[in-house]
Amino acid sequence: MASGFFAILDDIAALMDDVAVASKVATKQTAGILGDDLAVNAEKATGFLSSREIPVLWSITKGSFLNKLIIVPIVFLLQFFLPAVIKIVLIIGGLYLAYEGMEKIVEYFFHKKEKQEQTISDVQDEGAEKTKVKSAITTDFILSLEIVIIALGSVLDKSLPIQIMTVCVVAILATIGVYGIVALIVRMDDAGFKLIKKSNNQGFLTTLGNLLVKALPLIIKALAVIGTIALLLVSGGIFDHNIKEVHDFLPQVPEMPKQFLYGIIAGSIMVAVVTFGKKSMRLPKSKILNKTKRVAKKCNPFFRN
């Protein structure tokens, strides 16, 4: 009886050891996408009032956990029954990421004046906050999908229990690690002010506190640029790794510039398609409105626009 119990414990220990080794390998393989995930989500989680930063970040973190709770079982099912669908889903997600990245560039160069008029009070609006949180969770869904697929791909030669546990460990560590670091970034200024207060505005702690306070705006600006580049790189990487014709195109060009170029091309096409679609939807409405006005004028001579 006792020997059987210890044998079970030994099997569990061996399984945990295998999971630890497999998780280490999977985490190394997902390191690149995790770095991009950090840059993108740090940029998404900034721009709110100080009192709303942690609640907003917590909302995005919960959304990220829910994303992975949905993604992990679906990816396993697709891997066993419809592996080709995973590529299609990834490519669609890549198009969305490319659109998000290119839209930011278009807004910066062509709608800069409109963006400068927006103040932080706009972000304070509940509707604007929900929109930004929703956008962050949607982006996280696509990045999480790629993380889970890469993690699963690194342990396909292992048994099913090890595959499941490894992917779950990577998914949990990715969420905690990424959003934990983001939380530290967005609260840098608060930490700086506390250090200044604690040191009575003198000594090394005051210097460090001032450095943290002054560095935050620069970091936020840098994250906006890095996050946009990361979106285009991740999307280009998805096309490069999942579409053979795209992968074989421009073989002499290094991987990173090539993927960035793919992201820009796909993003430009998506921005053009979405813009045309929006204008096409508005056009029938304006025609109907004009026709209604003409009819109203005929029926009522006192009608005014």
Order of helices and strands: HHHHHHHHHHHH
Structural class: mainly alpha
Summed over residues and divided by their number, the pLDDT gives a mean of 77
- Total E-strand runs: 0
Helix content: over 70%
Which parts are unreliable, with pLDDT below 50 for 5 consecutive residues or more? 117-123
Distance between the termini: 90 Å
What does the radius of gyration come to?
Answer: 25 Å
Major sheet: none
Choose one word for the global shape. Answer: globular
Number of helices: 12
Strand fraction equals under 5%
Summarize the structure.
This protein is mainly alpha-helical and about 300 residues long. The chain is built from twelve helices and no strands.
Which characteristics define this entry?
single chain, 305 residues
